[in-house]
């Protein structure tokens, strides 16, 4: 997965609360926590990669209606790139 690139535009809200950083992206249902911003962004990337491989690349016949909606949001938000 490390050589795979998806590019897109979305809103990511990052907040710090004491020793914990939080990132949220409501449109993609991403809500992650970490101790540093670097860790946080790495986790967001991992979540997006997981969503992309699980939903965006899946055949619609293999997905529930809710999963197809996740796929639609991903395809509207991102595109594969090199």
Produce the secondary structure layout.
Elements: E1 5-8, E2 13-17, E3 20-25, E4 30-34, H1 37-56, H2 65-77, E5 78-81
Antiparallel strand pairs: 1-5, 2-3, 3-4
Helix pairs in contact: 1-2
Describe the structure.
- The protein has helices at 37-56, 65-77, and strands at residues 5-8, 13-17, 20-25, 30-34, 78-81.
- It has 82 residues and is α+β, with helices and mostly antiparallel strands.
- It has one domain.
- It has a three-stranded antiparallel β-sheet, with helices on one face.
- A hairpin with a 4-residue loop joins strand 3 (20-25) and strand 4.
What are its keywords?
single chain; 82 residues; alpha+beta; 3-stranded antiparallel β-sheet; two-stranded antiparallel sheet
How many strands appear in the DSSP assignment?
Answer: 5
The best one-word shape is elongated
Class by alpha and beta content: alpha+beta
What strand order characterises the main sheet?
2-3-4
Beta-strand portion reads 25-35%
**What is the helix fraction of residues, given as a range?**
40-55%
| Annotation field: number of helices | 2
What is the string of helix and strand elements? Answer: EEEEHHE
Q: Cα-atom Rg, whole angstroms?
A: 14 Å
Terminal Cα span:
13 Å
Instruction: Please summarize the sheet with the most strands.
Output: 3 strands, antiparallel
In short:
The protein is an alpha+beta fold. Helix content is 40%, strand content 29%. It has one domain (11-81).
């Amino acid at each position: 997965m490390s050589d795979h690139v998806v590019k897109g535009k979305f809103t990511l809200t990052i907040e710090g609360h004491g020793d914990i950083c939080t990132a949220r992206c409501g449109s993609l249902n991403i809500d992650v926590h970490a101790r540093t911003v670097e860790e946080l962004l790495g986790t967001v990337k991992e979540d997006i990669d997981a969503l992309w491989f699980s939903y965006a690349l899946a055949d619609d016949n293999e997905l529930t209606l809710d999963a197809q909606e996740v796929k639609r949001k991903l395809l509207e938000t991102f595109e594969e790139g090199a």
